[in-house]
Amino acid sequence: MNFNHAPDRLSFLQRNGIRDVECIFADISGYPRGKLMPAQRFAAGDELRIAQAIPMQAITGEYSYHPVFPDADPDVQLRPDYTTLKIVPWSAVPRALAIHDCVELVPERAGELCEFAARSVLKNVVARYAARGWKPVVAPEIEFYLTAPGDDPNQPLRAPLTRGGGAEVGQSAFSLNLSHEHAAFWTEFLAALDALGIQSDTWIHEMGLSQFEINLLHGDPLAVADQAFLFKYAAKEIALKHKLNAVFLAKPIAGQPGSSMHLHQSIVDADGRNIFTDAAGNETQFFRQFIAGLQTATPDLMLIFAPHVNSYRRLVTGLQAPVNMQWGYDNRTLGLRVPGSTPAARRVENRIAGSDANPYLAIAASLAAGLWGIENALDATEPLVGNAYHHAHALPRTMLAALELMESSATAKALLGERFVTAFTSVKILEHDHFLSEISPWERRYLVPQA
């Protein structure tokens, strides 16, 4: 059905008994924000607006007052992407949702995509590929934990009890027995993915206790980012229905592996041919240049891939999380891994992003960095054979270090837009300052006795 036509939208909504439509978009943290709209008004295409600052709302609920944001706090239009109109699978009453773009209304930018909105950033990067007659292809692998419910943030997160009444133990990793736990959640969640058009592939119990990974099928970057956004939304909502928490924190439990969002990337030309492979099946110069762009630009973009204080707890040696931008073949110690594949499926797996990263921004940053390498004919290092953990830690090690690097980076501003980078870093400064205002249990445990 073509939902671009109002009668088709109205018919769909009425047939499913829909009263309201969630008009949503991802803020910079990937959190769903927006408004509820009566179904008939949505079907008619009535205009919907929201404050321009909301796409840049901090995780604390605060807003930056950096001069890049207009003092008047003008509205943007929420413009629906009708291809994303779906029934909300977890709603207690019939409800639909649609992902929206934020479009400027101020006269000097009227009709343009709002620079502060995450979906806009990705659209602008994909447009640069389209100008060359190319189309990027992306597939994310998303990890998360299921934890027991808890309302005290001072207490550690806990894995939920198993059917036998005990806790998981070390041999749980990749266990099929443990994949049968929480069957009611998994049944409803996987059905929701189908209902939302989220094209998932395999799913496994990962290395951590009650940690799981689901792979999404490769596809158009914007469509895949929309699916990843809805994936996280669905997981959290359905977990709560089953007295669980779906946690996408990069390092939610001390001593356990972190959660990543690995991004597999390739590029096809107008004829659908992978430009990383030549007619003889060999690597092309574009392949190495794409890798070089990632190697060169990723440190400046680290705050996109690791956006929170907690994100940097994941990036440590020994737990298949990267600490540098070495690359090579089928090696999980590297920041950039080239999986074994046929020549037609040759791709680069960017292993830097945590599962806490905004999928729109992480995909945009990774694709922008790779294209930058091609545009500037950059040279990649030689592929690494061996353990990348034996090489220097070459990525920012704290949120503050990444923030300061991105804030001063001409490369980041060239790739993602100067106003976006200025706005993004101003919000991250606010969040980091808020973090510094809290006193942690570690400080009370070790510093109080010494005072």
Overview of this structure, please?
With 451 residues, the chain is an alpha+beta fold. The chain folds into 2 domains: 6-128, Roll (Ubiquitin-like (UB roll)); 132-416, Creatine Kinase, Chain A, domain 2 (2-Layer Sandwich). 45% of the residues are buried. The strands form 2 sheets. Strands 7, 8, 9, 10, 11, 12, 13 and 14 form an 8-stranded mixed beta sheet that branches. The protein is 31% helix and 18% strand. It is built from 13 helices and 14 strands. α5 packs antiparallel against α9, α10 packs antiparallel against α12 and α11 crosses α12. β1 and β2 (32-38) form a beta hairpin.
Write the CATH architecture name of the largest domain: 2-Layer Sandwich
Superfamily (CATH H level) name of the largest domain: Glutamine synthetase/guanido kinase, catalytic domain
Shape: globular
Protein structure class? alpha+beta
Mean pLDDT score, rounded?
Answer: 93
Tell me the major beta sheet.
8 strands, mixed
Portion in helices: 25-40%
**What share of the residues does DSSP label as strand, in percent?**
15-25%
Order of helices and strands: HEEHEEEEHEHEEHEEHHHEEEHHHHH
Number of helices: 13
Instruction: Report the span from N to C terminus.
Output: 69 Å
Short description:
This protein is α+β, with helices and mostly antiparallel strands and 451 residues long. It has helices at residues 6-15, 39-44, 118-130, 183-195, 221-241, 285-297, 302-305, 311-314, 359-375, 399-407, 410-416, 418-436, 441-446, and strands spanning 20-26, 32-38, 49-51, 75-80, 86-87, 95-104, 135-147, 200-205, 211-216, 245-247, 261-268, 327-329, 336-338, 348-350. The longest helix is centred in the middle third of the chain and has 21 residues, at 221-241.
